[in-house]
Amino acid sequence: MGLQGWRNVLALKTSKNNNRAAWQRAFPVPLSHSQITRLYSRFHSLDKGENGALSREDFQRIPELAINPLGDRIINAFFPEGEDQANFRGFMRTLAHFRPVEDNEKNKDLTSGEPLNSRTNKLLFAFRLYDLDRDDKISRDELLQVLRMMVGVNISDEQLGSIADRTIQEADTNGDMCISFSEFIKVLEKVDVEQKMSIRFLH
Amino acid sequence: MESYLFPFDSLICMLLGISFTVWFTLLLHLYKPYRIIAKEPVSLEQEIQDMRRGGAEPEFDMSDIFYFCRRGVESIVDDEVTKRFTAEELESWNLLTRSNYNFHHISTRLTALWGVGVLIRYGFLLPLRVTLAFTGVGLLVVLTSIVGLFPNGRMKNYLSDKVHLMCYRICVRALTAIITYHDSENKPKNGGICVANHTSPIDVIILASDGCYAMVGQVHGGLMGVIQRAMVKACPHIWFERSEVKDRHLVAKRLSDHVADKSKLPILIFPEGTCINNTSVMMFKKGSFEIGCTVYPVAIKYDPRFGDAFWNSSKFGMVNYLLHMMSSWAIVCSVWYLPPMSRMEGEDAVQFANRVKAAIARKGGLADLLWDGGLKRGKVKEVFKEEQQKLYSKVLVGSTSFQSTNQD
Question: Which of A192, A196, B232, B332 can bridge B66 by disulfide, Cβ–Cβ 3.0-4.6 Å?
């Protein structure tokens, strides 16, 4: 790790409680010190070019991600619109969606804006995986493309088409042949999103 | 020469042992958890069935994406493969900067201890070891050339064995390798192949100092080439030209010819094909398992607290690596000789290779992975993604045919 990298890690580790506000602003995710430093060393080990940011190739180098049918869509979620590099802050922000929802947070009054790992934001993350052109609607074409990614060559075009049609028919309430975010939320209201879209961070 | 050095070197080992006890009682132990996240191994089908909303099973549910999404993000945070190609992370620091990942400055006392450690390692241990190493290699070249002058026969084989063993043992001292051999009754015999997990080039020295093997490898230039040419004069090793390595039939033929000749030594092969960091065993290449002779598996496990033996060839060159090795505290490892295995009826080479791999992993306490060690440098094959897609399609299509038979 470069000298600057180690300085960052040291700053994290030695910051006291009264600096918490300062580093929480820098890392707007309520993870513990040790969790953040572990994520930083993971970030650093993925960053082969050692330039403080990850490129798409850096993600592709993870074999388990490369064989994931939706690997490319997931990688895309780490890169903001039009950018090719993901810095550590962005990396953490995206991962923050997968923090489990703590019990005391579930009933919290949402005055300061929703936390990244709320149910709505987790659903938004999934919605964006379908919404290829980021126009806040899932069209039949987009649904077909994502389905094709998931099944490969094993299902015919006609069968896939009818699956897509049926799905849109079930979800679409305002008749525009597209699924909007609110329709998406309605369709999945019975699914335990908090559990399915959470990763258990240790310590 | 060796007997002269022997008492001196065991004194070093004793001193090391004492100093270690002292260091570790003074050290603060930091427990760092290895894993960042907890992963539950659930199959694709089960997860997706669980996820489907209650009631009649629809063909496709928009929530199916959650499975892939979570698995993908889990692998971004922590995956099984990429961490095998860098040195193992330690629970508590062993006072070597090269093993310093997450350990931060704790106290001046610790830094002072570390400083003293550096002085001892570089000022005292390193020069001693380098001298021994040069002696060992020099003797190997000179003595094997001399033995090569003898006519072929039992005398030559006997001398060659003795010479090889002696020189390798000097090299072992040069690294201060403290090796424990288990189950020596299973040691490889002539006409067989010895397979072991691969962590570093030192594996060869460790195994060859306890038994005589025929080495397999590519012809090198420079110093390595000199050593190779000298060794092959004394007893038949198998060195391939660079061009011959690609030709799998030629390789297989030379290996089988060697094995068929019972007077020749057992061949030593590392089927992983590349160095892995000794926390896992990766896919064994099936080439050596197709030859159809007895396979003698050997498991090698290094203790990472005293020195990290893994050679990260993309990061360090050979000289750098040897320098690291010779300035560590010691190389402590265990070698287990497993009972010989042969290919069973109806088993193909790949299944046989996996069976041997599982046995080695179990004995050495290593994770048994199906991933290819070649992923260190290359990309994963598309066919694995297609397998995932196929599995998911089965889940979809399966429920379709269920529905259509219901409606009929």
Answer: A196
Can you tell me whether residue B215 is helix, strand or coil? strand
Alpha carbons within 13 angstroms on the beta-carbon side of residue B266 total 23
Closest CB from B38, B53, B83 relative to A200 = B38
| Residues above pLDDT 70, as percent of chain B | 80
Which of the 8 DSSP states describes residue B341? Answer: B
- pLDDT higher than threshold 60 for residue B85: yes
Task: Evaluate whether B298 touches B179 at the Cβ level (below 8 Å).
Answer: no
Q: How far apart are CA A142 and CA A7, in angstroms?
A: 44
Nearest to B63 among A62, A188, A199 (CB): A188
A125 in reach of chain B (CB within 8 A): yes
Of B58, B61, B66, B63, the closest CA to residue B42 belongs to: B66
At residue B201, the pLDDT reads 85
pLDDT band at B31 (very low <50, low <70, confident <90, very high): very low
Please, which residues bridge with residue A104 across strands? Answer: none
Q: Cα separation of A8 and B351, whole Å?
A: 48
Q: Is A156 within 8 Å of chain B by CB?
A: no
Quick check: helix, strand or coil at residue B38?
strand
C-beta separation of B249 from B256 below 8 A:
no
Could you tell me the pTM of the whole model?
0.73
ipTM for the whole complex: 0.84
Distance from CA of B374 to the nearest CA of A (A): 11
Dump the DSSP string for A84-126. --EEHHHHHHHHHTTSPPPHHHHT----S---TTSHHHHHHHH
pLDDT for residue B152: 84
- Over 80: is that where the pLDDT of B39 sits? no
Alpha-carbon gap, residue B356 to B339, rounded angstroms: 10
**Among B131, B189, B140, which Cα is nearest to B163's?**
B140
Give me B46's structure tokens. 């089960």
Q: Which residues of B touch A196 (CB under 8 A)?
A: 51, 63, 66-67, 70
User: Which tokens go with A106?
Assistant: 């579930």
- Does A68 contact B at CB distance below 8 Å? yes
Q: Give B-chain residues touching A198 at CB under 8 angstroms.
A: 70
